[in-house]
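Lab notebook, bench 4. The sequencing result for the construct came back, and we need a structural model before the next group meeting so we can plan mutations. Quick request posted to the team channel:

Model the 3D structure of this chain.
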Amino acid sequence: MNISGNTILITGGSSGIGYEMAKEFLKKNNTVIITGRNDQKLQKVKNELKGVITINSDVSNANDIKKLYDQIAKDYPALNVLINNAGVMETINLQNHKLSPGELTKEIDINLKGTIWINDTFLPLLKKNKNAATVAVSSGLAFVPLAIAPVYCATKAALHSYSLSLREQLRNTDVKVFELAPPATATDLIKNFKESDLKDVTLMPVDKMVAAFLEGFANNKFEICPGQSSQLRFMSRFFPSFILKQLSKPVAAMHAN
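Done. Here's the predicted structure in token form:
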């Protein structure tokens, strides 16, 4: 993949991994469009990243996605890279919670359904343009779950499976399908976790994680697993019971509380 001269849409680009991607792609002379749900955060990014284009859009809202597509197709028809980065992560005690059905499954709406809907909507536009790609940001937890975040991990495992299928179905097109499976990364996504939950976890700096992504992206590495994510993938294949037990240690503390 060429990593300059592209028109790139990054969902959930107002913070964390998406923000860092936007910053780095702008340095490489790309047109970068980011989406988010918070106008104040989007304006802050616009003030900080010269040249970034911001659009308020919710990936879990089908009407928002249609409006987003109409705007992009009209104003930025050269769009050739779609990065599905929007995501949320919650710890949930499945034995003891007060969440409504909608709250319980909101991670499915944003992390999984949002990606599927956006790919489905934007694929015709991507197929018209050269050097085209879609990227799903999954997680190292796609390979083995962290039991205290059950719905999040389920969505990322589903995204991994979906990406494999999408890649096969687009094999006869010029659209490349990438999956980025970050390890635990130093972003706001983990703000709901207690220090004890992350006792044996080394957080990867977001700039290093994105640098690893850009290297893999430029070299057409379709499954990019930076840092400890690669270890999780290996352990899930050869020592699945052991690594599941290790990642399930925080469950005892969750139930005690």
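The CA atoms of residues 20 and 215 lie 14 Å apart.
Will bring this to the meeting.
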